[in-house]
Amino acid sequence: MRRRSAPCPPAAATWSRRLLSCESPSGAMKAVLLKVAGKEKEKEKEKQFLEVWYQNRKVKSIDLTALDKHGSVYDDNQFGCLAWSHSETHLLYVAEKKRPKAESFFQTKAPELDCSADEELECPKKPDAPIKGEQFVYHEDWGETLSTRSVPVLCVLDIEGSSISVLEGVPKHVSPGQAFWSPDDTGVVFVGRWHEPFRLGLRHCNNRRSALFYVDLTGGKCELLSEDTGALWSPRLSPDRCHIAYLENRVLGPHQQCSRLRMYNWHTKQTRTVLEVVPRQVWGAFPGIYCSALPRLCWAADSRRLVLDTSQRSQQDVFVVDMQTGSTTSLTADAPQGSWSVLTIDRDLLVAQFSTPSCPATLQVAVLPGVGQEAQIKWICLQNAPPVPGISWGIRTLKPPPEQENPQYEGLDFDAILLRPSEGPTAQKPPLVVMPHGGPHTVFSAGWMLYPATLCRLGFAVLLVNYRGSLGFGQDSVNSLPGNVGTQDVRDVQLCVERVLQEEQLDASRVALVGGSHGGFLACHLIGQFPDTYRACVVRNPVVNIASMLTITDIPDWCLTEVGVPYVPNALPDPAHLTVMLQKSPMSYINQVRTPVLLMLGEDDKRVPPAQGLEYYRALKARGVPTRLLWYPKNNHALAGIEAEADSFMNIVLWLLQHLQG
């Protein structure tokens, strides 16, 4: 390929942000996608540039916005990709389909030639002519954090010619994403997600119907590579270009599950299951796969083994999988207790990060040993981060009493991670902050978490509860919770709190709750069901009334699934089901609440819309319960904006200090 220099993004830009980047197969070139904003006073719209670098020198800058072939490029994890062809001449990415311009019926303009005013609506339109009457058409989106994503298209950029082709042939009933080049560059492999009868929220929802497809670049023919009855994602091509590994869940049901690892053979066109779902977690055995995605580079150089990280109860560990035999080996079995995450593997050089609740992440590297010798791996720490002083922590396992056993899934246990101050005056027992996680099918891993660590340094003990239904404890644990929310999970948290208060030197008169989403659901339940235990409560975007959330959330299937009712898209709301939803919601215990509550709501939350928090706020105010509401504009479910995160944390601390005074 001929190397040519190109102009930089316009000097008028006030800032730029890197969205995606990827190296070419040879490692010589790198592609970088940038978003550039113009000066605010000039009201320039954001532009997107794709830069090509060769040996640390920028050789090309392509203004994707000026080419006007599509809308914004996707940089999310659900659809987004940026992939070099094996020949290193083309780049593949996903973008929003170009939407025709629309205008009002009453937009005034000069009449078209050869058309009378009366015939204007019937005249043939120019390709880019605005369409009348389409100005206010509703366009579905993919929910929380994906509100600008509606109709994704596969795009191919010719590096030399600076031209873009939007691929044809994708079936109309699916939305393409997570794409990469086929082994011979003759086509593109992608994950197609069903969007009929309508789109549901996709973020943190690995249970949406999807399949693996191949579209031929020459004839536009599209071929189904996998079964089309599951929910698959995260396809990864092996270095020898012979196999595609991917993760698969069952459709609907819990949003997060124990996943299957499957492998498609490009030459034989056969798919087989490498690792199955694990019903129960057994010490010393492979725990199952619980991860949001496989690492982008996860294959060993031999194209036989694959590296991934997964939750193992309240820890996260790294495993290598022999894709031929299905055998697994822990690469962190002899490492300290904590949380490990794979960052990448390149020609068997493995890069990972390790952290604990008292120590921020450190970078770790190792060379992956040969087949059968993986347990001999030696990790080298590239940066020594000393533990944060004044924090001690441990993991405890609890088993529910017989009367709280789930009759369908007996014998399940659960964990909790306790952080407590190890410095300061010993005469005074520290107060306890209880933090149940959201989801509900997620998990607290024994890794670095800023909020718990900071609260601990401020003198609070912090209890992180992985109640039954959390990931990492087997699929039986996940399955035990739907139909039992508001009881099983609430009792697990309360049991853990009572046990810790009995066994640890903590102040039982100063206990508070902090939770978000389903963690907020549990916090609101606990102050209603056990009002004498808690002195303060802080909730972020909490679920308080599943019945009223059903028709306004991007995940209506969650509302039904978690109360034990199958989700059917065309079913009418059943009064009996709505009654069950209310009975399992914190609002049913509102009359018993006396604990002061701080509510923090994101104005743009599509997952748990702020109407939920407002409903609880008004109910508390009507009953004279001390409450305060913080409203964060331009923030969604995570409240992850810089101002919102800083302000919310300060308010959390001040609320706890105010209500947990000795």
From TrEMBL:
<dbReference type="InterPro" id="IPR011042">
    <property type="entry name" value="6-blade_b-propeller_TolB-like"/>
</dbReference>
<dbReference type="GO" id="GO:0008236">
    <property type="term" value="F:serine-type peptidase activity"/>
</dbReference>
<dbReference type="GO" id="GO:0006508">
    <property type="term" value="P:proteolysis"/>
</dbReference>
<keyword id="KW-0378">Hydrolase</keyword>
<protein>
    <recommendedName>
        <fullName>Acylamino-acid-releasing enzyme</fullName>
        <ecNumber>3.4.19.1</ecNumber>
    </recommendedName>
</protein>
<dbReference type="Pfam" id="PF19283">
    <property type="entry name" value="APEH_N"/>
</dbReference>
<feature type="domain" description="Acylamino-acid-releasing enzyme N-terminal">
    <location>
        <begin position="23"/>
        <end position="379"/>
    </location>
</feature>
<dbReference type="Pfam" id="PF00326">
    <property type="entry name" value="Peptidase_S9"/>
</dbReference>
<dbReference type="InterPro" id="IPR029058">
    <property type="entry name" value="AB_hydrolase_fold"/>
</dbReference>
<dbReference type="GO" id="GO:0005737">
    <property type="term" value="C:cytoplasm"/>
</dbReference>
<keyword id="KW-0963">Cytoplasm</keyword>
<dbReference type="InterPro" id="IPR045550">
    <property type="entry name" value="AARE_N"/>
</dbReference>
<dbReference type="GO" id="GO:0008242">
    <property type="term" value="F:omega peptidase activity"/>
</dbReference>
<feature type="domain" description="Peptidase S9 prolyl oligopeptidase catalytic">
    <location>
        <begin position="453"/>
        <end position="661"/>
    </location>
</feature>
<comment type="subunit">
    <text>Homotetramer.</text>
</comment>
<comment type="similarity">
    <text>Belongs to the peptidase S9C family.</text>
</comment>
<dbReference type="InterPro" id="IPR001375">
    <property type="entry name" value="Peptidase_S9_cat"/>
</dbReference>
